[in-house]
């Protein structure tokens, strides 16, 4: 990048929805994605929800010619589902695990098992920090129990970007953020990092109305979820910013429109986002663009802190009730042990309970004890992490208020 | 720091061993630590194993006068035990959780519950990145089952430092690394980050022989653990390096010698480490000191990768055997269900088992199924993380070999 006046960078981002045995027409779609990527020859490809390492390996083999560098992020029980293909060398990768990521007992939502992580560096001679990521899904917008977790993730992601991006020239973030453009998490992430939204900045736009990436025209989307949003919603983003002596301009943003170009099926239940960026070296360093002195930032952080505080209250209540349940189960077990000992010692004239029911009750109490203790430990961790985030936000608010 | 020619920085580091109900004479020792810190007036204090938030709050109140800035890192079930007191403003903090930290079922070792984290920025006008941390303990040196986990932690710590330190002027790391100075983890951390060991660099030294921080003279240390090391061992470190246009020189390193100065009891079962650093601005930027082109570095990374590979083999074996156990338990349950259904349908002439044993066996099978499934999931995550680290190390090795 050093010698060239302008670098034109084409980026492809897609949530691939490639879950083995569950996603419809998975193999066909992965093949289609691979073919398109090979034909189009992007510079950087950020994919999410490639849950099977076999699918990744297949893509890697197919794309070896035009994207010689790639990385798959391993984490969690199932994996992170995140991978990156690049025309430029990937110099280094770093894994950052969010401290909160849903609840292990919400099996139907599954986020906990995936340990979602951002983090990859693709080098373009001068360093370019690129992140591929996915935040916790929103399963019910009206009563969103995961909002505090998603806010903690947005905050940790913002902190991660602030702390790791200082030596980069350009920061790029692409992924399924599971948040609408006006949501507090997006405003927090953008405000606290200074990242710009490619959709809002693009000189030329082509695709679904309002840049939506979850649209009713896509045959795989859940139509009932989109009932309140007849045009669809935008939850997949490409965000960027220049750090040191560079400027970035978004020339073009395109999305697919319910089906892959020239085909009868879409790539995924999400639409793909494709942008073209112009990166140019400036005469003088742009100075610190990290701390955006936006007066609205304090309001956003305050709003986020209030939500995290509400989550903290809920987590404390759950910790308390699971702890109480564990104590009750323990008491029942002790009572049974005392009764059994009493019977053995011949204190009671006859056995007070039939053996089977007595035994069943003991096992039930033991099961409840184990489960409730596990839940108590989990919610204790949740309380610590939410409390820690609240503290960090408070520290930032104080610094923002002290700044002129 | 900008205007001054030299900054003299005094740092105190101690593993406080302050576990409620378990550590001997805890309250007395925490009081003593607080008194000493107040008298001595260090610039930066890095404490580990302050497990009770009450102890932290007590110290915070006591030290508010001379250390107006402090931070306690919340994480895990119990907490991280890490805190920082500073004479200079703490600008920002970041939490990084290691992806592996022991086994949840090794209750007697407890590391898993603590989620150890480094990460704190103490600002000295120009940024100073300071980290307080503790790595996974070594419980048995000869047959060290935790070595791969500790190596993953050392690696992640090194990566974390490389990625976050670029905008800092000076990086400081203090803590209980649970590794001897010649161990592969320490060599990896130092080699890959370029951090220098204050003990090796100090112009003036005073304290236990060889800078040991776990010594037989300390009345709280476990004497049997120290039998093979009659002089003691050094596992608490202060490491540092200058990043941009600064130089750092270690003027002095002191350790306590089995008891607190002028008292009859020690601060902790570990000795405190105190250093005085001289930080000076250079005329020209020192250039990139991150990638140390040490030819021995490739050997260290190879050695570490071999150990991580051995850990990966072991984790795969454990994943396989726990998976097999879960399948066997499931088969037994299915068999029992079939037998019970058969009896209900009147297929058998009489009941083949006494009800109680039948019921007990079913519960046992269920218990084994739940436990084995949990273990299988845990070891699956372990395999993913070890495999990911092995991959990262390979990427680095390739880059090291390609470099001239």
Description:
Two copies of one chain form a homodimer. With about 400 residues, chain A is an alpha+beta fold. Chain A folds into two domains: about 5-280, Deoxyribonuclease I, Chain A; about 295-345 and about 350-400. Chain A is built from seven helices and twelve strands. In chain A, helix 1 runs parallel beside helix 2 (about 55-65) and helix 3 (about 145-165) packs across helix 6 (about 295-345). Residues about 115-125 and about 285-290 of chain A have low confidence and may be disordered.
Low-pLDDT residue intervals, each spanning 5 or more residues of chain A: 113-126, 286-292
Query: Largest protein interface?
Result: A-B, 43 and 43 residues
From the structure provided, what is the oligomeric state, counting identical versus distinct chains? homodimer
- Helix and strand composition category of chain A: alpha+beta
Task: Tell me the domain tally of chain A.
Answer: 2
Pfam families (chains A, B): Exo_endo_phos
Subcellular location (chains A, B): Membrane
Protein name (chains A, B): sphingomyelin phosphodiesterase
Keywords (chains A, B): Hydrolase, Lipid metabolism, Magnesium, Membrane, Metal-binding, Sphingolipid metabolism, Transmembrane, Transmembrane helix
From the structure above, extract its key features.
homodimer, 404 residues, alpha+beta, Deoxyribonuclease I, Chain A, 2 domains, 7-stranded mixed beta sheet, 5-stranded mixed beta sheet, globular
Detail the topology: elements first, then pairings.
2 copies of one chain form a homodimer.
Chain A: E1 6-18, H1 26-40, E2 44-50, H2 53-63, E3 69-72, E4 83-86, E5 120-124, E6 126-134, H3 147-164, E7 170-176, H4 184-193, E8 196-197, H5 198-201, E9 204-206, E10 236-242, E11 246-255, E12 273-281, H6 295-344, H7 355-402
Parallel strand pairs in A: 1-2, 6-7, 9-11
Antiparallel strand pairs in A: 1-12, 2-4, 3-4, 5-6, 7-10, 8-10, 11-12
Family (chains A, B): Belongs to the neutral sphingomyelinase family.
InterPro entries (chains A, B): Endo/exonu/phosph_ase_sf (IPR036691), Endo/exonuclease/phosphatase (IPR005135), Sph/SMPD2-like (IPR038772)
Main location (chains A, B): membrane
């Amino acid at each position: 990048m050093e010698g060239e006046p302008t670098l034109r960078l084409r980026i492809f981002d897609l949530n691939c929805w490639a879950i083995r045995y569950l996603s419809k027409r998975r193999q066909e779609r992965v093949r289609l994605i691979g073919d398109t990527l090979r034909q189009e020859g992007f510079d950087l490809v950020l994919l999410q929800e490639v849950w099977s390492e076999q699918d990744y390996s297949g893509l890697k083999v197919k794309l070896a010619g035009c994207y010689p560098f790639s990385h798959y992020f391993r984490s969690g029980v199932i994996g992170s589902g995140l991978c990156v293909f690049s025309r430029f060398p990937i110099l280094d990768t770093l894994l950052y695990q969010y401290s909160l990521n849903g609840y292990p007992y919400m099996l139907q939502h599954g986020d906990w098992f995936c340990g979602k992580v951002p983090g990859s560096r693709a080098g373009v001679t001068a360093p370019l920090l690129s992140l591929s990521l996915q935040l916790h899904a929103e399963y019910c917008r009206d009563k969103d129990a995961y909002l505090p977790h998603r806010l903690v993730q947005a905050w940790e992601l913002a902190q991660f970007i602030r702390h790791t991006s200082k030596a980069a020239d350009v920061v790029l973030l692409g992924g399924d953020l599971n948040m609408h453009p006006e949501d507090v998490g997006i405003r927090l992430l953008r405000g606290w990092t200074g990242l710009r939204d490619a959709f809002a900045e693009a000189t030329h736009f082509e695709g679904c109305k309002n840049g939506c990436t979850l649209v009713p025209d896509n045959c795989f989307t859940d139509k009932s979820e989109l009932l309140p949003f007849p045009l669809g919603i935008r939850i997949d983003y490409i965000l960027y910013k220049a750090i040191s002596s560079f400027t970035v301009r978004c020339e073009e943003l395109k999305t697919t429109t319910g089906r892959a170009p020239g085909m009868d099926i879409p790539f995924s239940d999400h639409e793909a986002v494709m942008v073209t960026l112009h990166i140019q070296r400036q005469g003088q360093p742009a100075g610190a663009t990290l701390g955006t002195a936006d007066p609205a930032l304090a309001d956003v952080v305050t709003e986020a802190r209030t939500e995290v505080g509400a989550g903290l209250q809920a987590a404390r209540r759950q910790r308390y009730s699971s702890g109480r349940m564990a104590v009750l189960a323990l008491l029942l077990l002790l009572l049974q042990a005392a009764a059994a000992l009493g019977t053995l010692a011949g204190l009671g004239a006859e056995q007070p309970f039939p053996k089977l029911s007595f035994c069943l009750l003991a096992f039930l109490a033991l099961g409840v004890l184990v489960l409730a203790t596990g839940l108590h430990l989990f919610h204790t961790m949740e309380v610590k992490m939410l409390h820690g985030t609240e503290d960090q936000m408070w520290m930032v608010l104080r610094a923002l208020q002290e700044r002129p």
